[in-house]
Amino acid sequence: MRSIELFAGAGGLALGVSAAGFAHEAVIELDRDSCDTIRENQRRGIRPVRSWPLFEADVTEFDFKPYAGIDLVAGGPPCQPFSIGGKAKGHVDRRNLFPEVVRAVRDTQPQAILIENVKGLLRPKFARYFEYILLQLSYPTIAPKPAEDWREHLARLEQHHTKGRLRDLTYQVVFDCLNAANYGVPQRRERVFFVGFRKDLGIEWSFPRPTHTHDALLRSQWVTGDYWERHQIQECTCPDKWRGRVERLRGGLLFESDMPWRTVRDAISDLPDPTKGENDFPNHVYNPGARTYAGHTGSPLDEPAKTLKAGDHGVPGGENMLAYPNGEVRYFTVRESARLQTFPDDFVFAASWTESMRQVGNAVAVKMARLLASSIKAELARKRRLDKALQSSGQA
Predict the structure, then answer these.
(1) What is the pTM (predicted TM-score) of this model?
(2) I want to staple 226 with a disulfide (CB 3.0 to 4.6 A). Which of 220, 222, 267, 362 is the partner?
(3) Lowest-pLDDT range of 110-119, 163-172, 267-276, 336-345
(4) Do both 139 and 29 map to the same domain?
(5) How confident is the model at residue 294 (pLDDT cuts 50, 70, 90)?
């Protein structure tokens, strides 16, 4: 199945979509440093990156019409307009490029859509604009008129929606705020995902059920001790903040399918200590100068990492630090951060530590992208098999 990707960044979402079995026909990114990272991995022959048709281009000027009939449009528009850590100017921020996503859908009429953005998009202050995004994705051919304000366009979309006459191109769009830790990513990262299918396909779809839980982690650490045994270290003392919850877990039942949240230790324990000098892992270089300050104390070693962040003006230090049980802290290396975002180890970042950490922090966790894209692809494949079977029975 074929796909195109907007706002590719360093390629986290694209890697996951490729791993799910989609073949990219266009990977579009404006930022030169991010494109350099992709190009470096292409030069190194890293699969599937080496086959991506990369366009270093402004998406507002990109012609999507040659890709009409594509199976999937994917992308993560710039999050700064809606991020809690940014200025949160929303629709008036020039970096708000959701309209370009809608244009891509309108021009290509894909079978499915996969879009990612920050949790801040769900804040009450953006409620009306969030509705606007949903209705635009649902009815992409109802385009804004020249000089039409977004509120006026929203009113037309609402009228179209309530009429119920949906003869034009229509998508069934659902959204959810997913915590990556609940799906096996060693990071507590909450992001909003939009998934849509063309209405004429008649597909019924829902977000995959979480597979990993905090309770399962607490039980493996402080009830059974399996966690410490697996890492071959002496069991630590249960933090006071979890004691009551752990007591309730003793003798309690969990779903048999529930797996423990993955921790920082789970993700990086096989990497050499970067403070000891050079090693054979790319991007695994120690960066000194980490320190804690109010509200920024780093990520505990035996919990999923806090959300890795990029920041508008460099890396926000306390959020991208490792916190040891003894209270010491240090910056994550780029490779460790890439592990927390589930990038493969052979994928390298070609820029400075600060720029590479920005790229990692802006990325979609590869495992999350693969999970959702695989679910989308499976549904599209099921639909094709059904259609083929119906055609065969009709011919018979």
Answers:
(1) 0.93
(2) 220
(3) 163-172
(4) yes
(5) confident
Contact indicator for 21, 1 with CB cutoff of 8 Å: yes
Indicate whether 240 and 260 sit together in one domain.
Answer: yes
Which residue is listed with tokens 């505990």? 300
- For residues 159 and 153, give the distance between their C-alpha atoms in angstroms, rounded to a whole number: 10
Tell me if 64 is assigned to some domain: yes
CA distance 256 to 261: 14
Catalytic sites, residue numbers:
79
- 289 and 372 fall within a common domain: no
Domain count, the chain: 2
Do residues 142 and 14 share a domain?
A: yes
> At how many degrees (to 10) do helices 127-138 and 98-108 cross?
10
- Flag whether 253 is in a domain: yes
Name the pairing type of β-strands 321-323 and 190-198.
unpaired
Q: Are residues 20 and 101 in the same domain?
A: yes
Q: Give the domain extent around 280.
A: 213-351
Whole-angstrom Cα Rg for the chain: 22
> How far is 187 from 363, CA to CA, in rounded Å?
13
